[in-house]
Structure to design on (1428 residues):
C-alpha cells in the first residue's frame, strides 16, 4: 500500500501532518496528485472545533493537480491532464443536482437532499491537503486547466471565487445596483469582484484592515466603510443618501454583520449571506419591517461542478479579475502546520496561503 | 361640506363609527362610493395598538365601490363605473414602482423607497370602512369589475387573495412542488389556493380549527397537520418521507410558525413569509444549516395596482378559485363596531365579514 | 445471446417487429424489462422519413417497466423495482447538464453540447418499443413508480406530459395569464393542462376535432377556437378583447400555427414553441413589430431525468391532472405494426396507444 | 405664442429645421429646454421613409436639458433642475407598465398594450431635436443629472446605452458566458459594454470597420471578427472551439446577422435581438434544430423611465463605462441638416453627434 502525507484533523486545535495510504478509487472516481492547494477559513473553524468533522479526516477542499488515475467507468479525461475540482463535488445524478441545487447533494433515497451534502472534501471524505486526493463522481467534477494559467491563478476557483461570486449572483444584482459587502476577507473580496462583474455601480466594502481595504478597491469597491470610524449602518445610509442598498452581502458569519446588512437594505432588497454562523441569529423587528418590507435573506453554499470551474477559469483567463495577489504566503506541504498557525491567527497580513506538496 | 360615516381609530382598543367630511380629491385622485368592504386581521392589530396609526384615521383597505368623482388629470375611467382598488395603491411613478417594488412605494426624493409605503388606505391616509374613500393615483389603481361578478366575489381581491397568492408566487413554486402553509386564516387559505394555482402537488395545511381545515381542503390542501395532535415538524417530515418541503409559507406572524417553517424546508427551499410580526425573530443555527443550506427567507407585502386586481378578478371569473364561502358574516356599516367585536375575538366560526354602507 | 422482439426502423415507411439481442449493459446502465410503452408523433415523423435515424434502430422513447439488471457502478436502485425513465436521458455530468440545459446533453469534450443530444432512446441508441431497453446513466434517469399508480397512469410522464407542461413552464406563465394552445394533439392537450397548473385564467385551445376539443375542456381549456369556423387570429383577438394573449404555445410544428401564435401575442408576450418543424419558418415583419415588440420565441425539448419524472408522477398521484383518458387504444407488442398503422393515420379517434410486450 | 426651432419630418428624405410653437403642457407634463441632444439610427430610418411617422412631427428622442415648466399635477421636481428623460417615456400607470412591460405602454382601455407604444418622442408626439420638448408623465420620466456629469457624458443614457445594455440583460448573461455582438454601431458597442458589465468572459464583436473594432475592444470586446475576412459563423465557432456562444446579440436588423446569430448559438442559448428590421425574417430549419434546440429569440425595445435613467447615470458616474468617445462630431441645432447629412452617410468616422440648441 502506497503511502502519502496528509494534513489530518486529530482533535480540537490539532491538525497535523501524518502518513496515510494513498486513497483507493472506485469506478466513478479519479485520483489526483495535488500540485497546489490552500487553507480556507472553514478549515480554521474545523481546527478550532467550531465545525465538527470526524477525527482522522484529511482536511482541505481546494485542489489543483494532475490526474493520476481514473476509475473504470470514467470517460472523457486522460491521465496526466492538469485539472481542478470544486470544493463542492456534486454527483450530477442526485435529486438535488437534477433540481438545480447541487451543493445540497444527498444520497439517492426518498430524501435525496442533505444539508451541505455536496461539500465532501475535508468534510465527509478525505480532503486535499495531501499528496493525493480521491475525487468522487469525476465526470461531473474534473475541470481541465486552460493552457497558460498557473496553479496560483486558478487556486481560488474551487472555493473562494465560486463562493464570493455566488454571493453577488444569488443577490440578483442588476446593472446600476448599489451593493455593500460586510467583511473583506478572501470571500468578501471575491464578493466585491463578483458585484462588479454583475454590473453594480456602487460597491461599498466594510472592513477596518488597511490591506484588505486596498485590495477591495483594486477589485472594484467604489467606497470603503471602516466600522471603527463610526456606526457602519449610518455611514452606509449616508453614502446611499438615505436610500439603502439594493443588496447586502454578509461574508463573516456573526450577528453584528448580519443585522447591519438587514438594516442597510432598502425595502425590497436582498441580504445575500455567505458567512458560516456559529450561533443562533436574531432578526430585529424594525430592521425586518415587521415582515412587510419585501426583504429577502438568501444563503448560499459554494457552487461546484466542472462547468462552474470552467467558467471561473475563463474569467481568470480573460483577465477581468485577478486574484493572484490574494496569495500572500507560500508553504511546502511539509510545513502546513506552520501555515495553519499563521493563517489561523491572521498574522503578517496573510490573505491566502499556497501549499505545495 | 358633505358628511359621511367612517370607522375611525380613536385610541387603543377603540375603533368607532363617526361622522367625517367626505374626502376632497386632488387632480390624480378618484372618489369612490363604497358598496362593500371588509375587516382585515391587520385592522385588528391596529385596534389592539400593535400596529401604530394616527388617532383620527379612517381604517380599512379593501374597497369595492362605484366611481363618484374623478380628479381633473384622470383619464381612462368614467363616473358610475364599478371598481375595486388594491389594499396597496402604488403611484406608478416612484423609483420603487419603476424598479418593480411597488408595495414599498416612497416619495419622489433621493430615497424613493419607504418600507410598506405603498400601503396607504387606513395606514397613511383615510381608509375605506366608510361611505366614501379617496383613491390616490387613480389611473394606476382603479380596476373595473367585470360584468357578472358580485361585490362579495371580488371582495377578497384587494388584500387577502393578492397577499395569499403572492406567498406562493414569491416562493417560486414549480409544478410538482411540496408546500406547507402555516396557519389557515384567510391569508393562509388564499396561500393554499395560490400554491395549487402554481402547480404544487403536495399542499399541507397546518391548523387546529376544523372549519379552517375543511376550507383548506376545499381550496386545494392535500394534507392537514393539526399541531395539537403532535409536533408539526415531525408530522410534516413524515408526510414528505424525510425530504422536507420545497416551500413553506408562514401566514401567522409568530416565532413558532416561522421557526417550524424553517425546520421543515428541504435544503435549498424557500420560506415565504406573509405574517405581520410583532417581536424580534430568532433563526436557530441548526434549522439554518449554519448559513450553508442554500435556504431563502422571502417576505412579501400584498401586491397592488390595477393590473394585479384585473388578474385576480379574472381568476375569480374563470371559476378556478372560489373565495365567496370565506364571507361568513354580513354587517351594515352602522354595525361595524359589532363586526369588529365578532372578528377580533374570532367568534362564531367567522372567517371574513362583509360590511355594506 | 438472449433474443427479444423490437420495433425497428428499416427504411422510410417501414418500422417492423424483429428479433434482436437483448442489449448488453455497461457499468453506468440499467436493463429494463418493458411492461408498457407507447408511440409518439415523433415516431411517425421517423416512420415517414421526416426525421432521420439510422436503419436498424429500435424506436420508442416512453418506457414503463421493471429493473432487470443494474450496471456495476450503479447504486441506489435494486432489481425488480418498478420504474419509468424520461424520453430524454441526461447524463447528469456533462457541461450541458451542469449548466441547466440537460436536454442538449453532449459528449464531454470542449463542446459539451449537442443539439437534442439528450434524446437518446430511439434516436441515438436503441429505444423501448421492445421487450427490453438499456437505460444509460441509470442513476440520473431511473425513477421509481409510486405504489398505487398503474402503468397507464404514468405512461404519459416520459414525454408528452413533460413536453406539454414545459411549454407552459418556459412561457413563464403567471397567475391570471391568458394563454392559447395551437393544436390539441397529445402534446397540446398536456400544454393545456400545464397552463392550468401554472395558474392561467384564460386558456384557449385551437383545433377542429371534436374529441380533442372535449378533452381540452376537461383538462382546463376555458375557450375553444375552431379554425375551420373563421380566422383563428381574429377569433382569439376577439376573445381577449383586442389585448392578445400573454403566452402562445405552438404544439404542431408548421408555419401557419407558428405565425398565428406570433400574431395573437400581446406586445411583450412569449411564443413557447413545442412543435417539431420540417421546413424553414418565416417571421412576418408586422407580427414581429419590426423587432421592437419585446416578444420572445422560446423553443423547448422535453425535460427528462429522474427528478422531473418524480414530480410528474406526484402530479398524477395528487389527482390534479388525469391523462389516462388519452389512452384510447391498446395493443400487444406483437401487433405494433397495426398500432403504427392506426396511429399514423389518426384513425378511429386515436389519441395515444398503450403497447404491452 | 412663443416660437422655437425644431427639426421636422416633412416628407421622405426631408427633415428640415422649422419654426414651431413651443409646446403647451398638460397637468402631468413638463416642458424641458434642451441643452444637448443627438441623432439616432432610427431617425435615419425615419428620414429615409423606412419607419413611418406623421409629416410635421418633430424628430428626436434623446433629450438632455433643464426643466422650464412643470404641469399643475407634477410634484417632486422643480424648475431649473437639470434632467434627462429616456427615449421611451412610460406612463407608469398603464396595464403594460404595471405588468413590467413599460416600453409597450398603451392607452388605458381593455387592451392596455400597444406595440412600441412607450416610444413617444419623435414617433407619436413631438420629439427633442428642438429648443423645447414636452415630456409626458413627467413624474415617471424626469431624471435629475448628478452633479459633476456633463451633458455629453449622459447623452447616451436615453437610448443607446439603455438599448445596448438591455440586449445583454435580456439575454440573461451569466458570469463566464461567451457572447457575440453582431454589428458595432453605437447600439452594438453599448451591447459590448453591457455584456462586460454582466460578467461575460468572452465577448466577440463582429464588424469590418477599424474604428468600431477599436472602440469595441476599449469597451470590453475580447475578440473581433471581421466578416470580410471569412465566414463569420466559422470564425466564431472556431473561437469558441466548436461550442458556440451562450448569447448572440443582433444589433443591425438584417437577415444575414439574424441568421448568423442563430447559427453560432449553442443549444440552449439566447439570441437577443435589438435591430430594427425592415423585412420579414427567415429561420433556417437547421439553425433552429427543427425547434428542438432549446434556443430562445428575445427582442427588446429600449427600457425607459426615471429609475432606468438614474441607474445608467450611476454607471457613468462610477467610471466603469465611458461612452463620451462615441461623440465624434458636434453641431449647433441650426446646423442639424448638415448633421443628418453626415450621420446618414456615415461620413468621416462619425459614431454619434452632439446637437446643441
Amino acid at each position: 500500500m502506497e503511502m502519502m502525507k496528509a494534513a489530518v484533523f486529530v482533535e480540537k486545535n490539532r491538525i497535523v501532518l501524518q502518513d496515510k495510504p494513498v486513497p483507493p478509487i472506485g469506478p466513478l472516481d479519479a485520483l489526483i496528485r495535488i500540485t497546489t492547494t490552500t487553507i480556507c477559513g472553514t478549515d480554521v473553524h474545523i481546527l478550532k472545533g467550531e465545525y465538527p468533522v470526524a477525527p482522522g479526516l484529511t482536511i482541505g477542499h481546494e485542489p489543483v493537480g494532475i490526474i493520476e488515475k481514473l476509475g473504470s467507468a470514467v470517460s472523457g479525461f486522460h491521465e496526466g491532464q492538469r485539472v481542478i475540482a470544486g470544493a463542492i463535488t456534486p454527483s450530477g445524478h442526485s435529486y438535488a443536482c437534477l433540481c438545480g441545487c447541487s451543493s445540497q447533494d444527498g444520497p439517492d433515497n426518498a430524501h435525496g437532499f442533505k444539508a451541505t451534502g455536496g461539500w465532501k472534501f475535508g468534510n465527509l471524505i478525505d480532503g486535499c491537503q495531501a499528496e493525493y486526493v480521491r475525487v468522487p463522481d469525476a465526470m461531473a467534477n474534473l475541470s481541465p486547466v486552460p493552457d497558460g494559467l498557473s496553479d496560483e491563478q486558478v487556486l481560488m476557483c474551487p472555493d473562494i471565487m465560486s463562493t464570493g461570486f455566488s454571493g453577488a449572483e444569488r443577490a440578483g444584482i442588476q446593472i446600476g445596483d448599489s451593493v455593500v459587502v460586510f467583511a473583506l476577507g478572501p470571500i468578501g473580496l471575491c464578493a466585491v469582484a463578483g458585484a462588479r462583474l454583475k454590473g453594480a455601480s456602487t460597491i461599498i466594502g466594510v472592513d477596518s484592515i488597511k490591506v484588505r481595504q486596498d485590495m477591495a478597491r483594486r477589485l472594484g469597491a467604489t467606497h470603503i466603510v471602516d466600522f471603527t470610524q463610526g456606526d457602519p449602518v449610518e455611514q452606509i445610509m449616508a453614502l446611499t443618501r438615505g436610500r439603502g442598498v439594493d443588496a447586502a452581502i454578509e461574508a463573516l458569519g456573526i450577528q453584528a454583520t448580519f443585522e447591519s446588512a438587514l438594516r442597510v437594505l432598502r425595502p425590497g432588497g436582498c441580504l445575500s449571506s455567505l458567512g458560516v454562523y456559529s450561533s443562533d441569529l436574531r432578526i430585529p423587528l424594525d430592521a425586518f419591517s415587521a415582515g412587510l418590507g419585501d426583504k429577502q435573506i438568501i444563503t448560499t453554499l459554494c457552487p461546484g461542478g466542472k462547468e462552474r470551474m470552467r467558467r471561473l477559469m475563463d474569467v481568470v483567463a480573460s483577465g477581468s479579475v485577478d486574484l493572484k495577489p490574494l496569495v500572500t504566503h507560500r508553504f511546502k506541504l511539509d510545513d502546513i502546520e506552520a501555515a495553519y498557525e499563521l493563517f489561523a491567527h491572521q498574522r503578517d497580513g496573510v490573505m491566502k496561503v499556497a501549499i505545495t506538496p
Notes: Chain A has a mean pLDDT of 96.
